[in-house]
């Protein structure tokens, strides 16, 4: 036997065995190097394509480390598997990803593509880290499965471990991946276990698109800045499915972002979207948030001086309130739907506002577990919305000021209450609203210690449950308990009494029809005739051409057609 040949064969076999179990010594690998096929612990300096699964369970360092720009790591459908035991998860902070990552780019290498790879059982699945002027730029992670990374028993100083961890990155893309079942330790806002965690000042224009992010221990996607610079941490989060995560669907602290759009965000334990600590989102549009706040929290939260603009978004079936705007925040909400709040414990309005400035236009607010809209100590501009079927009051406003204009309120207070409950001071313009078909015997507008201008509203009773003739009810039109109210150009239709209360009132130029007690019909220029609505039983309160309310009002500063304003909310224009 040739001893030399035997020794050579044994050496070759040993090399293949070492590569198979992933314990080869670290070296540069990839196309153009001495090792075109990479092994565990290697530094990738050229294009690398997997030819089989890579088992790194014996390694306490990274799976593969990026060592050059302009390279592609193609998993070709194979996997890389690590060891996420807590003792192997070296201290990882929000700004310093775990070294024991499946793919580790901590050198600010640019134009790196990671694709078609399953990454599992590391402390962090994929880590992209830049710093200062050395950002990670134009990295792409696509068509990867990143799951079961991290360890929930990691101590507090080793807790920032995630599925994908991005630090000071810009112009990078995370797309078409499945990121799920990742875990981590700690309980603060930088704790581990997020699916995708984006951190750091000085990084921007990142895109997180078309991913399926689910069943992570903490948030599906979490964005956090360093709390001082206000830099953008991501440009867009678009068209993702984000479901069943242990905290928020999308969480933000101190972060700014251009757009959150087209996402389906469902059944997360905490808010579907949580915007906190002065974060800014330029546009939140075309999202569906359903069944969030499973733990009994809100469906969508804007807090602590944050600024958002929301459009065409549906928030439904949340644990408590569907949408909260709190603590000095600024929000505009347009053409959105808020419905079926309080699904998990029977409490919470569709919209809750406290100590903030909020504009709501063109929204549909339906089936609230309590009042539809609850606000305190806030500025509220509420226009052209529909609020229907709230369990109690349609709106309960305390120590607020603002405008209620052009809204429609119907079938509210089916569990008791009335329509508009405004108290505790403040200045209000209440104009061109239609209040009809209330479901309970209480006041349609209740004013307590406010200064209010109540102009050009249509305030109606309801038909009985069998569709028969109109009731005289269910409550008085306006009750001025305290403060002052200027009440002009309104229509009061089939109510017990039109205007009551001991507050100071100026009343003139209103229409009253079918009041049970006509002694409350006030004003020198009142119209006591049928206003001739087109179809009040069918919820159409526009005026017929022969209505006595046309041109019967006084100019109060609102736009009108004809020689004078019409009475009621619907101006008749030819």
Low-confidence runs of at least 5 consecutive residues? 1-24, 464-470
Could you give the count of β-strands? 59
Terminal Cα span: 110 Å
Let me know the largest β-sheet. Answer: 19 strands, parallel
Number of helices: 1
State the share of residues found in helices, binned by percent.
under 10%
Q: Which word captures the global form?
A: elongated
Name some characteristics of this structure.
single chain, 574 residues, mainly beta, 19-stranded parallel beta sheet, 18-stranded parallel beta sheet, 59 strands, 3% helix
Describe this structure in words.
- This protein has 574 residues and is mainly beta.
- It has one helix and 59 strands.
- The chain has a 19-stranded parallel beta sheet, with no helix packed on it.
- β58 (533-535) and β59 form a beta hairpin.
- The protein is elongated.
- Mean pLDDT is 90; it is low at 1-24 and 464-470.
Quick synopsis:
With 574 residues, the chain is mainly beta. 3% of the residues lie in helices and 38% in strands.
Helix-strand blueprint:
Blueprint (H helix, E strand, L loop, with lengths): L2 H19 L6 E2 L12 E3 L3 E2 L4 E2 L8 E3 L5 E3 L4 E3 L19 E5 L7 E3 L2 E3 L3 E6 L6 E2 L2 E3 L2 E3 L16 E4 L1 E2 L2 E3 L2 E3 L15 E4 L7 E3 L2 E3 L6 E4 L7 E7 L2 E3 L6 E4 L2 E6 L2 E3 L6 E4 L3 E6 L2 E3 L9 E3 L4 E5 L2 E3 L6 E4 L3 E5 L2 E3 L11 E4 L2 E5 L2 E3 L6 E4 L2 E5 L2 E3 L6 E4 L2 E5 L2 E3 L9 E4 L3 E5 L2 E3 L8 E4 L1 E6 L2 E3 L17 E3 L2 E6 L2 E3 L5 E2 L3 E5 L2 E3 L19 E3 L4 E4 L31
Parallel strand pairs: 1-2, 2-5, 3-6, 4-7, 5-8, 6-9, 7-10, 8-11, 9-13, 10-14, 11-15, 12-16, 13-17, 14-18, 15-19, 17-20, 18-21, 19-22, 20-23, 21-24, 22-25, 23-26, 24-27, 25-28, 26-29, 27-30, 28-31, 29-32, 30-33, 31-34, 32-35, 33-36, 34-37, 35-38, 36-39, 37-40, 38-41, 39-42, 40-43, 41-44, ...
Antiparallel strand pairs: 58-59
């Amino acid at each position: 036997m040739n001893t030399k040949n035997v020794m050579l064969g044994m050496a070759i076999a040993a090399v293949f065995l070492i590569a198979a179990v992933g314990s080869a010594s670290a070296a540069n690998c990839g196309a153009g190097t001495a090792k075109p096929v990479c092994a565990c612990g290697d530094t990738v300096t050229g294009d690398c394509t997997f030819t089989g699964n890579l088992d790194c369970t014996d390694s306490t360092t990274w799976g593969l480390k990026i060592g050059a720009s302009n390279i592609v790591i193609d998993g070709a459908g194979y996997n890389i598997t690590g060891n996420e035991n807590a003792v192997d998860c070296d201290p990882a902070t929000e700004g310093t990803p775990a070294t024991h990552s499946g793919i580790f780019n901590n050198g600010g290498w640019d134009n790196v593509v990671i694709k078609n790879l399953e990454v599992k059982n590391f402390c962090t699945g994929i880590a992209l880290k830049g710093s200062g002027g050395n950002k990670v730029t134009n990295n792409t992670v696509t068509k990867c499965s990143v799951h079961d990374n991290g360890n929930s028993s990691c101590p507090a100083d080793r807790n920032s471990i995630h599925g994908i961890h991005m630090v000071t990155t810009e112009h990078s893309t995370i797309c078409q991946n499945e990121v799920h079942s990742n875990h981590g330790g700690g309980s603060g806002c930088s704790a581990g276990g997020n699916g995708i965690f984006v951190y750091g000042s000085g990084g921007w224009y990142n895109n997180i698109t078309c991913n399926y992010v689910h069943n992570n221990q903490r948030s599906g996607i979490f964005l956090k800045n360093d709390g001082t610079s206000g830099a953008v941490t991501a440009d867009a989060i678009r068209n993702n499915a984000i479901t069943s995560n242990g905290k928020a669907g999308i969480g933000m602290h101190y972060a700014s972002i251009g757009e959150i759009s087209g996402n389906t965000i469902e059944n997360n334990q905490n808010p579907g979207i949580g915007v906190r600590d002065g974060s800014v989102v330029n546009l939140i549009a075309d999202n569906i948030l359903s069944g969030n706040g499973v733990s009994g929290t809100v469906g969508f939260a804007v807090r602590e001086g944050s600024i958002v603009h929301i459009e065409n978004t549906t928030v439904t079936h949340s644990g408590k309130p569907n949408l909260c705007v709190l603590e000095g925040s600024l929000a505009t909400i347009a053409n959105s739907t808020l419905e079926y709040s309080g699904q998990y414990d029977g409490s919470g309005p569709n919209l809750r506002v406290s100590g903030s400035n909020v504009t709501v236009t063109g929204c549909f607010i339906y089936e609230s577990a309590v009042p539809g809209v609850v606000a305190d100590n806030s500025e509220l501009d509420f226009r052209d919305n529909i609020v229907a079927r709230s369990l109690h009051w349609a709106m309960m406003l305390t120590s607020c000021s603002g405008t209620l204009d052009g809204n429609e309120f119907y079938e509210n207070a089916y569990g008791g209450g009335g329509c508009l409950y405004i108290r505790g001071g403040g200045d209000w313009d209440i104009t061109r609203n239609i209040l009809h078909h209330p479901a309970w015997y209480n006041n349609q507008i209740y004013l307590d210690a406010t200064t209010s201008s109540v102009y050009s509203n249509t305030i109606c009773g309801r038909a009985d449950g069998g569709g028969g003739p109109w009731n005289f009810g269910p409550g008085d039109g306006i009750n001025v308990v305290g403060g002052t109210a200027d009440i002009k150009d309104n229509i009061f239709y089939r109510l017990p009494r039109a205007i009551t209360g001991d507050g100071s009132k100026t009343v003139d130029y209103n229409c009253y029809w079918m009041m049970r007690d006509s002694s409350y019909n006030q004003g020198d220029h009142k119209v006591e005739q049928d206003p001739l609505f087109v179809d009040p039983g069918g919820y159409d309160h526009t005026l017929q051409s022969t209505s006595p309310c046309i041109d019967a009002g006084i100019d109060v500063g609102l736009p009108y057609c004809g020689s004078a304003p019409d009475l009621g909310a619907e101006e008749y224009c030819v």
